[in-house]
């Protein structure tokens, strides 16, 4: 991908791939990194991709706090890779609440491919406006 890096693991990889297909139909070339291991974390692959795309979105089904997305964000911000970003690192996660048992509520609590697409469009629209806020 040349426009954006999507990083995901486990079931979120499927969401990221679906989002990448939807984005491709809109002319956005997203690179999806499937984290096969969280420890050790393949920061070399992540860094290489971010330096190429200049945008990073992490995707996970867990809560927004204390997740792998937060750790990846911190690692990027603490390295020289930070200076390659054209926008802040953004996390697409589940909502910050206990996971509901009822299927309809569960679907509202977990991220979807459309959530990822909406996030990416927001990031890239800010870039085209010359604003790096998300």
TrEMBL record:
The keyword Amino-acid biosynthesis does not apply. Its cofactor is thiamine diphosphate. GO terms for molecular function: oxidoreductase activity. Gene3D superfamilies: 3.40.50.920. SUPFAM superfamilies: TK C-terminal domain-like. It comes from the Eukaryota. InterPro entries: Transketo_C/PFOR_II, Transketolase_C. Coiled coil: none annotated. The keyword Isomerase does not apply. Keywords: Oxidoreductase, Pyruvate, Thiamine pyrophosphate. Residues 1-116 form the Transketolase C-terminal domain. Signal peptide: none annotated. This is Pyruvate dehydrogenase E1 component subunit beta, mitochondrial. It comes from Cacopsylla melanoneura.
